[in-house]
Amino acid sequence: MTNIPTQFNGVTAVAKANVYFDGKVVSHTILLPDGSKKTLGLIYPGKFHFGTDNAECMEIVAGHCTVKLDGQSATGNYAAGQHFDVPAKSGFDIEVQSGICEYICSFLG
After folding, report:
1. In a domain, 30, yes or no
2. How far apart are CA 32 and CA 44, in angstroms?
3. Contact status, residue 65 vs residue 78, Cβ threshold 8 Å
4. What is the pLDDT tens value at each position of the chain, 109 positions in all?
5. Total count of domains within the chain
């Protein structure tokens, strides 16, 4: 388990939401003082595929999901307090079966 932040101080929040899959995945971008970027989001029930340019760390804040990284046959189950890493130039399938999965996505590099 990781120590997932509960708040971010001194950030710039981008008001325009990132909306995917007809509103079933919604996030907002925050820009940190050190120049890094994160998104804070919600995933409603369904199965979705995301591609990545940069490596990402997805931290689950609330709820739970099942994830399969591109190129792998195994899936992983993640709940609040856990995270998974996604390599650059790849992607992942994420499924939420019930409730809402809340996440923090950190862009690495």
Report:
1. yes
2. 26
3. yes
4. 458 888 899 999 999 999 999 999 999 999 999 999 999 999 999 999 999 999 999 999 999 999 999 999 999 999 999 999 999 999 999 999 999 999 999 998 7
5. 1
